[in-house]
Amino acid sequence: TNAWLAARRSVDSRVSDLFMGLLRSSLSCLKCGHTSYNFEPFMDLSVPLADSAKSKSCDLADCLKLFVAPEVLSGDEMPTCERCKSRQQSKKQLAIQRLPSVLVLHLKRFAYTAYSRSKVNTNIAFPHSNLDMKEYLCDPSTGKTMYDLFAVVNHSGGLRGGHYTAHCRHPVSGDWSLFDDSSTSPVPPTRVQGPQAYLLFYELREQPVIRSTIV
Q: Is the pTM of this model over 0.85?
């Protein structure tokens, strides 16, 4: 698409080759039905946590569905409709126009309101393999959509400070290791998932050369 070609011209590097995708934002007027579209490149997706995560564990699929769920804009948030030429209640919705070779999902564990700040330390269940992004696409019939996990960045601590570690999967053996500052240790796959998971790195299954390139 023209939007994708324009994005590639503005950011042309090996990093963008691997990590860049394209988001489509649609805005539909609830009075006249007019819909406008805006396209924006992304290097990662900031995924909101489902409401159930505040009290118990939830599934990554629930978070992704929330990411693409329609949102009604009303009151002070009402945009100006291009057809009505006035501010109208509208529906906004995100969808993925183009998937990247390496998909980075940022779990939004830090919540900010006018009165409080908090971190959600509950477990988000995410698959090690077979993450299918088909239902979050503008056109589910286009391209490859299956991803496999190869790295997780963890954050321990709270709002005032914390510590980062990483779990990474070997591109040949498939074994997982924990990287903690200068130390490295093998870990079972069951240790990869936990309430400290913060960034998830997934690789498009049909392009295994990507992981060996960046590990």
A: yes
